[in-house]
Amino acid sequence: MTPQDPRVAAENNQRAMLLGGALAACVAALPFFVPIPPVLAIVAVIGIGLAPVLVMAAFRVPFILCLVFVVFSFFRIHEAFPVLGPFRIPQLVAAPTIAILAWRVLGTREVRPFWSRELTAFTIFFVLVTIGVFTATSRPTAMAYWSATYVKIFAMVPTIAWLARKPADFGLASRAIVLAGILIAAVALWNKSQGIGLVEGTRVTIARDIGSVLGDPNDLSLVLLFPLSFAVALVVCRGSWRSTLLGAGATVCILLAIIATQSRGGLMGAAAVFAVVGTRVIKSKVVLLGGGALALLVLFAAAGISGRASGGAGESGIDESSMGRLYAWGAAWRMALGRPLTGVGLDNFTSNYFFYSGHWDGMNHAVHSTWFGVLGETGFPGFIAFVAMIVLTAVAAYRAVGATHTQQSPVEVRGMSLALLAGIAGFCVSGTFLTQGFTWPFYILLALCVATSQYAKEESRNATSHADAASMAIKQAI
């Protein structure tokens, strides 16, 4: 495709702005004829006014729509800010994202699909999970979660991997994830200061009154943990001063919000993120290990873990929270033994807890472990495929860090590769105590890791071809 003439582009932008202004004016007049809440009308005016410009931007930079979908689906922005709920933004952008990808692949052929071992492992795991849906103990429950969440993850993983192609895309993804993390952290800290939705009197949540995923402090800490690695990478990789300042502010804000959740898994995941990044900055292993251990103790003290109603210092021996996890892990193991090939089915752990638990206290419980959750719900084949997928992704992330730093790739790519490696470490550590086998975090990391690895391979091939061309030119000159 030939580049668009600047004058034509300017005229198109002007037409889009005029169209957006006209549509916004029409919507602004609606409250005079139809009763509409003022806040909803204002948001609608802004959204419709910007719609034409956003559509043009989406066709020029299709990765934008993909990011919007991921940010709203994972961070639940529309639940943290309920005024956005009626617009159903994740559903609104999902179909256009796939349509634009199809156009770029089949129409303009600007995007060239590729495959990798990580995508193969992910596909195998998805197939095993899907088979387990039809053999689940409660098929409606498994099918509801599969259709509402997991099939979307399956569609978006290759979409992200194929649309993120340039350093600008990686930089945009890092900033979008960090900004979303700041928004969620700000709401969490506000709720903490106002005493809104606190669990056990001290643990912060968001939108608990509407049944949001963010209404569980452990799940909230997981959501906050994801952007932490990207924020720290922005600081360490030292791009522009704006990016460094954004990363530093986000790191502080997000870390304070994780502390406010008082989630031990979240704090240990944060320590893992800092440990991985620390290996790129601190050369002395003794200083790194000693400083890391001290920092973890400081984090636990700052979070007031000992003062928690559950899992605090007031409980003797193994606390109730830890024992609950051990009972749940035992139940998951019995589920895998009882149904070794398929497990009990996607999202079926809680409903099966009574039948497989060795300790019944009158309530069903969540598994509180990614590893045991996958084992119990997908059986041994699914667990093996899941672990293989994580190992392959971690190896690819490690190699991408080495390749991008050796090649002196753009700072956006180096920052992304470091954030991915740190994020995977945080996932593996926090995943021991938090349930995230079938939620967005790891799969976003996987998709971005595939994209970063592909970029590093193409850069390596280009460098080799340039070197060969230069060598040939010298030989011919001689």
Layout of SSEs?
Blueprint: H1 6-29, H2 38-60, H3 63-75, H4 77-80, H5 89-107, H6 117-134, H7 139-163, H8 167-194, H9 217-237, H10 241-261, H11 264-281, H12 285-303, H13 320-338, H14 349-356, H15 370-406, H16 411-430, H17 440-477
Helix pairs in contact: 1-2, 3-5, 3-7, 3-8, 6-7, 6-15, 7-17, 8-9, 8-10, 8-16, 9-10, 9-11, 9-16, 10-12, 11-12, 11-16, 13-14, 13-15, 15-16, 15-17, 16-17
Verbal overview:
By secondary structure, the chain is mainly alpha-helical. The protein contains 17 helices and no strands. The protein folds into 2 domains: 14-60, no CATH class; 61-461, no CATH class. The protein has helices at residues 6-29, 38-60, 63-75, 77-80, 89-107, 117-134, 139-163, 167-194, 217-237, 241-261, 264-281, 285-303, 320-338, 349-356, 370-406, 411-430, 440-477. The radius of gyration is 24 Å and the shape is globular.
Count of DSSP-assigned helices = 17
Overall pLDDT, averaged? 82
- Rg (C-alpha, Å): 24 Å
How would you sum up the global shape? globular
What does the largest sheet look like?
none
Helix and strand content put the structural class at mainly alpha
